[in-house]
Amino acid sequence: MGFTWLDYSVFAFMLFASTLVGVYFAFFTKRKQNSTAEYLVGGRSMGVFPVSMSLIASYISGISLLGIPAEIYTYGTQYWLVMISEALVSVTMAYVYLPVFYSLNITSSYEYLSLRFNSTVRLFGSCLFLLKMMLYIPIVIYVPALALSQVIGINLHLITPLVCAVCIFYTSLGGVRAVVWTDCLQTIMMLAGAILVVVIGSRDLSPSLLWQRNMDSGRIDFFNWEIDPTIRHTVWSVTFGNYFYWLAACSVNQAMVQRCLALPSVRQAKMAIVILAVGIASIVSICCYTGLLIYAYYYDCDPVSTKRIGKADQLLPLYVLEVASVLPGLPGIFMAGVFSAALSTMSTGWNSMAGVIYEDLVKPRLKKPMSELNASRLMKGIVVIIGILCTALVFAVEKLGMLIQAGKSLGAITAGPLLGMFSLGILFPSSNSKGALFGGIASIFLVAWISLNSQVAIANKRLVYPVKPISTSGCNETVFPTEVDPSVTITGYDDVLPFYRLSYMYFTFIGTITAILVGLIVSKISGGNDTSSTDPRLFSPWIRRHMERDLPKKEKVILEEHKF
């Protein structure tokens, strides 16, 4: 099984169209990418629709398109409830965090840390963001390479440079406008591929039969109310725990904030966030339902057990190939969708990383101001360099476990500390720079210790999670022993410490709470913060109103003048 000429044509069209968008915004549009404001935030004049599509595309990476169906197939439907936390995060982002960034009219979200604390905290936060993206983007690159290698048999290490070369080209040339508009195109391709797979897969499988097969295997499992934090997924971990991971990914992440700041007003940004919440819920549901379809199709012959594929994350590409005969070109549409999801996340990440490197690391240390033209050229060069570095790091990704778990586990190393430091500044007026710095440092060491050791234990097969039962009773191929025994409990082996057994969903929560608690304690010991001399725009609207009630009448007038 492999690609036909039609599949190659669809796939090539997606890459060619993405390249054309970069060329257009670099050479033919009236608004040239020759200033930092234009290159990073599109002159703050972007429209709600393209920005919304870009936000959706950045979140739904190839990790989601391939990883979520594999998650449902392997562990059941408990993960589906992440939509609850993601809806709550949208409200929190719109009314707590985003108004602060808009009122300050900043380009880099980490500029806030220098305004609220000092340049040292800003530098620390910027470095954490860069570390996070360097850990995350190689996984994003690996996913489509894995899928395409499964479909047409090409070595994934040959595919990786191709993906990165196209992305580096249009990201470096076209700036945020090229990123946003290619994201729109890629979101359409991604949705088309995902919906077609569901429609074709459901053609010969009635909803009742699909439900029955998944119910019989125990995969319909939405409401595990156990409070044991070592259980991989429960209602509490996928709602409460995931809330903090998604809050960090949206509210204070430069890659997300930068697109919101490209809109003219906070009202339009809130509209984009509403569309983002609806889009995420829709695509996550499609991916989860696809996981149920895949199990119902392979319910009596697990393809991992027969070594037709090497990992559960390859289930969806195999499934697409086997149902593709009904619709010529479906594998090409599917692969274009997976690559689109990856390209959008990569381009957004690289554009935001270039902005952070210039605004937070380079610009403050220049003895003489750099011209806007030279600054935009420098950022284009930065995109090329970090793109090459991320490509090189792909070789380490193959050693990780399930894509969804690996991505969130490694991302939590920096997500928790960053969310904790921003929350200290926005929600706790008494916190100071020493508290933010020590809180962030304590948080990153704790979460890195837990997360990395957990991933090492999984890679070495010392920590094995219980999976839903599989069957090979209908197989004609040779069946090989599976590496994961469904009877293995969460405790794994005795030499795995309890901290490493914690559900990865709680890692960001642990990091956030550690940063806030340590930050408040250190701030208290070091004298706190003089709120009377602090710009009130640095706090969330709710905190501003609370502060206003406690101020004398004269100071209320001053606060009113600073309101956004």
Automatic annotation (TrEMBL):
Subcellular location(s): the record lists:
Cell membrane
**What does the record say about its membrane topology?**
Multi-pass membrane protein
The cellular component terms of Gene Ontology attached to this UniProt record, alphabetical and capped at eight, are: plasma membrane
Query: Which UniProt keywords are listed?
Result: Cell membrane, Ion transport, Membrane, Sodium, Sodium transport, Transmembrane, Transmembrane helix, Transport
* Annotated PROSITE patterns: NA_SOLUT_SYMP_3
In terms of Pfam families, this protein maps to: SSF (PF00474)
The entry lists its GO molecular-function terms as: symporter activity
Give the transmembrane ranges. Answer: 6-27, 48-68, 80-102, 123-145, 151-171, 178-201, 273-298, 318-343, 378-397, 409-428, 435-452, 504-522
| Coiled coil segments of this chain | none
Q: Name one GO biological process term.
A: sodium ion transport
InterPro entries (UniProt xref): Na/Glc_symporter_sf, Na/solute_symporter, Sodium:Solute_Symporter_SSF
Tell me which CDD domains the record gives: SLC5sbd_NIS-SMVT (cd11492)
Q: Which family does it belong to?
A: Belongs to the sodium:solute symporter (SSF) (TC 2.A.21) family.
PANTHER family, A to Z: SODIUM-COUPLED MONOCARBOXYLATE TRANSPORTER, SODIUM-DEPENDENT MULTIVITAMIN TRANSPORTER-LIKE PROTEIN
Record's protein name: Sodium-coupled monocarboxylate transporter 1
The record lists the organism as Laodelphax striatellus
